[in-house]
Amino acid sequence: MAEQSGVQGVTQGRVRLSAEDVAGLNQRFRGSKPEAVLRWAIDTFGSRLAFASSFGAEDMVLIDMLSKIEAPITIFTLDTGRLHEETYDVMERTRDRYKVAVQSYFPGRDAVEALERERGFYSFRQSVEERKFCCFVRKVEPLGRALKDVDAWITGLRREQAATRTGIDVVEIDASHDSIVKINPLTDWTEPQVWAYLREHDVPYNALHDQGFPSIGCSPCTRAIKPGEDVRAGRWWWENPATKECGLHIDSKHGAR
Ligand code: SF4
């Protein structure tokens, strides 16, 4: 099993990968279909694998693929308290269509109460630091709780999504979360590939995508883009593109992503 899966070792019940394992796996998965990556992940990590979903287009592709593999996997989402109505709608349609439970992680009550009391309700517009603080309270800290008891997590990240994501690999070691494994099966996919899959398989998706939102986050920090604009132009549009990450995805090779 260990040899077949490319896993170096199991320590105190936890599956760990070495840097050599990761390099070998990325070589092996070059040109592979995402379904092959998902099958490897399920075989390797079993119940200690979770899928972090914000129910964007890429995540819906992966949810559909996972349903066809028929693997019980924990799907979790970060309910920041500032999401769009359309996001809750697609989460509910996902539950209905795929008969899956979605585990929400909320921000800490005391932290949000203090944030709003001391900094206001739109502090994230004041500076990059204030915005990152809000993202920390509402996303980063809850993500840490969600990943505390897993050995690996799956994301829908793609390289072409942002200047900050061009260096991602299919398999990575997540140094910001206790060196668990991070798996990005859609790394090489293009936006047209994502939409071709959704249409071919009649997969539900967030209605905001049809209103000019290629990337969807919290309601006050996401807006529609104009034709020809970068796909991340509607996220934190008042900031420099180089700062446009919420801290959920830290590049272990190059720093913040
Ligand atoms: S995206 Fe905006 S509202 Fe959501 S956590 Fe980040 S700063 Fe706060």
Describe the structure.
The protein has 257 residues and is of the alpha/beta class. The protein has one domain (2-256): 3-Layer(aba) Sandwich (Rossmann fold), CATH 3.40.50. It contains 8 helices and 10 strands. It has helices at 2-5, 19-28, 34-45, 57-69, 85-98, 109-119, 128-146, 191-200; strands at residues 9-11, 14-16, 49-52, 74-78, 102-105, 152-154, 171-174, 180-183, 250-251, 255-256. The strands form 3 sheets. The chain has a 6-stranded mixed beta sheet. Helix 5 links the parallel strand 4 (74-78) and strand 5 (102-105). The longest helix is centred in the middle third of the chain and has 19 residues, at 128-146. The chain is globular. Bound molecules: iron/sulfur cluster. Residues 80, 82, 124, 131, 134-135, 138-139, 217-218, 220-221, 246 line the site of iron/sulfur cluster.
